[in-house]
Amino acid sequence: MELKIIIDQFFRLINFTNPYIYEALGDGLEESEIKYMEQSINFDFPEDLHTLYSIKNGLQHADFERLEQTLLFQNGLFLTLEDSIKEYEYLIFDFKLRKKLPIFDSGGGDFLLFDCDKKSSTYNTIVYYSPALLITTPQSIYDSMETLFSTNIRCFIDGVYKYDDTMSLEIAPKRLASLSKKMNPNSSFWEEYERYL
Fold this sequence. Notes:
- This protein is of the alpha+beta class.
- The protein has a single domain (3-196), classed as 3-Layer(aba) Sandwich (SMI1/KNR4-like), CATH 3.40.1580.
- The protein is 41% helix and 20% strand.
- The protein contains 8 helices and 9 strands.
- The protein has helices spanning 3-17, 19-23, 31-39, 47-55, 81-91, 145-157, 173-183, 189-196; strands at 25-27, 56-59, 77-78, 100-105, 111-115, 126-130, 135-142, 161-163, 169-171.
- The strands form 3 sheets. The protein has a 5-stranded antiparallel beta sheet. Strands 1-2 form a two-stranded antiparallel sheet. Strands 8-9 form a two-stranded antiparallel sheet.
- A hairpin with a 4-residue loop joins strand 6 (126-130) and strand 7 (135-142).
- The longest helix is centred in the first third of the chain and has 15 residues, at 3-17.
- The radius of gyration is 16 Å and the shape is globular.
- The termini are far apart.
- This is Knr4/Smi1-like domain-containing protein.
- It holds the Pfam family SMI1_KNR4.
- InterPro entries: Knr4/Smi1-like_dom (IPR018958), Knr4/Smi1-like_sf (IPR037883).
- Residues 28-151 form the Knr4/Smi1-like domain.
């Protein structure tokens, strides 16, 4: 299925389950705006990244009472492209993180990074970086942008995720690990995460 359709489906689902966080998401950027910001960090964004930010541009304001109210999924605080580039400028000092753009944040220093390095074995996938968990060499967590969104759509449909009465995200970790491992067979993170639970 076309990536744009899957991302649109995900955000429609968010609008249905939590209109409050949906309203806090920025409208998509024009292609010229994405290109302009792309030039500021001196590497090309893969097409999937252009697609994502042309649909929505991250969480625009943070007047939420709890971190869990800002999450679209586990580790899913959606960064604006501007904030993504700012975070990248801090991370770039670690050679292992070069050309890996943070697109989602845990809110506590962990990131989901989109690998933009054409020479990388994880190019065009989502990798996880967590100094707190000693994952300082990014580890594959979603096989592609498409599986990131399709996995998290399935998590909402199957009740792995739900928003409670305060609009905080609740997660069933064991079911998340099982489903995500199945939908991302090329990503090593979920098997290790499942063993940890």
